[in-house]
């Protein structure tokens, strides 16, 4: 938005990331996952609002007289298609891995209640509605030239915007506010792990004994995250790497392994071999996804400089 409103402005991307980091440091002082419940509710409405805006903007762009040309063909190289397929699997795993976060949180900060199942059903329903609606509408309009951030496709650098400015501006604001909420939720699991060592559960969460370590640890954590985000402005590539290395094992391998270890189904049973098959298949998918995602990261590395203002998608 800044580069569009002030093309000759002196501020760089890392300056805005620093601003966001400062806000995140303040917001990160919410002591528990439960204290984020109102922010999570706002996040739900922001997700739905952003999705409706993007889908509407894509339909508007696709039906307008200035609609972009569309090419739905796959890449000509068979190896590139295979690598991109595994990268895409990793990204999808990262997206649908969102549901694993409240489950981890429930085990770290008991008691876990029956409401967790309802929460997960709600989580996956929202993901299906939001991610698929924007992905399908974006691909319909832009084909294989679709950006991993559809808003960037709707606001090309060298051409007029493909939707009304106020609509796109509202979408950007929704994204920014939503990212604050996402950052808080994702970070809360790390906070729980860190504070198991630093906190004294015998004392209140707002006593000096617990308050000072919490402020220091969370501030340092957010400064580190902000520094890495400013230094390495990747988007889609990072999603692929995180999905392959983090979410595929977390979503598809570890649950099956823990089930077999906990319930010890007979080795002659269908459940045992089904779980084993899932572990083998997704371990392979995770390894291939990690390789293809890191490969794409390396290929894209030549497109940017450290602390660049151009995000590599």
UniProtKB/TrEMBL annotation:
Question: What range(s) does the Amino acid transporter transmembrane domain occupy?
Answer: 9-296
Q: Does the keyword Heme apply?
A: no
Stated membrane topology is:
Multi-pass membrane protein
List the Pfam families hit by this protein, alphabetically.
Aa_trans
UniProt entry keywords in alphabetical sequence:
Amino-acid transport, Auxin signaling pathway, Membrane, Symport, Transmembrane, Transmembrane helix, Transport
Q: Enumerate the GO terms in the molecular function aspect.
A: symporter activity
Location(s) in or outside the cell: Endomembrane system
Gene Ontology cellular-component terms listed:
endomembrane system
Q: Which residues cross the membrane?
A: 12-30, 42-63, 83-101, 122-142, 162-186, 215-235, 241-259, 271-294
Q: Which GO terms describe its biological process?
A: amino acid transport; auxin-activated signaling pathway
Q: Which family does it belong to?
A: Belongs to the amino acid/polyamine transporter 2 family. Amino acid/auxin permease (AAAP) (TC 2.A.18.1) subfamily.
Q: What does this protein do?
A: Carrier protein involved in proton-driven auxin influx. Mediates the formation of auxin gradient from developing leaves (site of auxin biosynthesis) to tips by contributing to the loading of auxin in vascular tissues and facilitating acropetal (base to tip) auxin transport within inner tissues of the root apex, and basipetal (tip to base) auxin transport within outer tissues of the root apex. May be involved in lateral roots and nodules formation.
Protein name in the entry? Amino acid transporter transmembrane domain-containing protein
Q: Which organism is it from?
A: Salix udensis
């Amino acid at each position: 938005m800044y580069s569009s409103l002030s093309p000759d402005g002196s501020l760089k991307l890392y300056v805005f990331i620093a601003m966001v980091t400062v806000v995140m440091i303040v917001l990160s002082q919410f002591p528990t996952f439960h204290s984020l419940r109102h922010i999570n509710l706002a996040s739900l409405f922001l997700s739905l609002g952003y999705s409706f805006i993007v889908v509407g903007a894509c339909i508007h762009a696709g039906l307008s007289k200035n609609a972009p040309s569309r090419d739905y063909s796959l890449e000509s190289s068979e190896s590139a298609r295979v690598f991109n397929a595994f990268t895409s699997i990793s990204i999808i795993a990262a997206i649908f891995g969102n549901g694993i976060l409240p489950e981890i949180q429930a085990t770290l900060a008991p008691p876990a209640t029956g409401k967790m199942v309802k929460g997960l059903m709600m989580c996956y329903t929202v993901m299906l509605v939001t991610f698929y609606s924007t992905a399908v509408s974006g691909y319909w309009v832009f084909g294989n030239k679709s950006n991993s951030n559809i808003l960037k496709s709707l606001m090309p650098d060298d051409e007029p915007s493909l939707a009304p400015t106020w609509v796109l501006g509202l979408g950007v604001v929704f994204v920014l506010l939503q990212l604050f909420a996402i950052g808080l939720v994702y970070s809360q699991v790390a906070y729980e792990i860190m504070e198991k060592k630093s906190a004294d559960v015998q004392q209140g969460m707002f006593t000096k004994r617990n308050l000072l370590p919490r402020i220091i640890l969370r501030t340092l954590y957010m400064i580190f995250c902000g520094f890495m985000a400013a230094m390495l402005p990747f988007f889609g590539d990072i999603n692929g790497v995180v999905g392959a290395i983090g979410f595929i094992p977390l979503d598809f391998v570890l649950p099956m392994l823990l089930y077999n270890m906990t319930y010890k189904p007979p080795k002659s049973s269908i459940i045992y071999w089904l779980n084993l098959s899932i572990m083998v298949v997704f371990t392979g998918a995770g390894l291939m996804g990690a390789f293809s995602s890191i490969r794409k990261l390396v290929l894209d590395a030549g497109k940017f400089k450290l602390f660049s203002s151009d995000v590599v998608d």
